[in-house]
Amino acid sequence: MARQARAIQTRRTILEAAGEVFDERGYDAATIAEILGRAGVTKGALYFHFTSKEDLARGVLGEALTTEGVLPQDSKLQEWVDVGMVLAHRLPQEPLLRASITLSADRHARALLGTSWPGWIDYLADMLQQAKDQGELLPHIDPQETAVLFVGAWTGVEVVNSAIDGGRLETKIAALYDHVLPGIAVPGVLGRLDTAADRGARMWRAHRRSGGSDAPATGG
Question: Which residues bind DNA (predicted)?
Fold first, then answer.
């Protein structure tokens, strides 16, 4: 068991180091040597877990679809908002998550590796369908189409905000929700949604207080 735990930790250490390097350098300029230096592991340890730089990049992309910190809400539309707000809170602090966007936005890497976007689209479309089934969305809203548009918009906001050093990502993503929600939400639901810029931070703190479990959040 101890050996297995060490192997899991080593793999995580390698992925986090790779995330830092891919985020800073991009896929083409990243090297195994630099990743090894960041991770502080041997070449043998790295190749035990990953067969190549391409395999390592796929591992980074595999970590992208995370909803850790998103706590169950009675309103599925609020929970949908929380997914994007928690991610906006976590992204500046977690190079592994940032790297998934860097790799997905890189045309060459995207052609080679694919992206994390289809997984996000499917997840968010399913959540929007649940919100629609609960009567929270306007009748004409197509959950799949909305998810595609929103993933594109969220990613675009993050990329542009990073490129122009536009300040806190959470503020920009909150503004994105404030622009999108009036066009998809039933008016009676819209007024109850929490899209404050600190929503993600509050949800993350509640998640951590719960010990990382999926206990319900207070409020929302």
Answer: 31-50
Q: Does 53 reside within a domain?
A: yes
For the chain, how many structural domains are there in total?
A: 2
The domain that contains 16 carries what CATH number?
1.10.10.60
Q: What angle do CA 33, 39, 44 make, to 5 degrees?
A: 65
Whether the Cβ atoms of residue 53 and residue 26 lie closer than 8 Å to each other: no
* CATH number for the domain harbouring residue 198: 1.10.357.10
Structure tokens at 56: 């390592």
Nearest residue to 71 (alpha-carbon basis) of 217, 219, 201, 220: 217
Give the mean pLDDT of 184-191.
97
Distances (CA, A) of 124 to 30, 54, 93, 127, 164: 31, 27, 23, 5, 28
Whole-number average pLDDT of the chain:
91
Residues in contact with 217: Cβ distance below 8 Å, sequence separation at least 6, in sequence order: 71, 72, 73, 203, 206, 207
Instruction: Work out the pLDDT band at 63, boundaries 50, 70, 90.
Output: confident
Two tokens, residue 179:
């622009």
Residue 69 lies in a domain: no
User: What is the pTM for the complete model shown?
Assistant: 0.86
d(CA 22, CA 60): 9
Tokens of 1: 């068991």
Give me the half-sphere count of Cα atoms (radius 13 Å) on the Cβ side of residue 79. 24
Note the pLDDT tens digit of each residue in 83-100: 999 999 999 989 989 998
Show the tokens assigned to 194.
């929490």
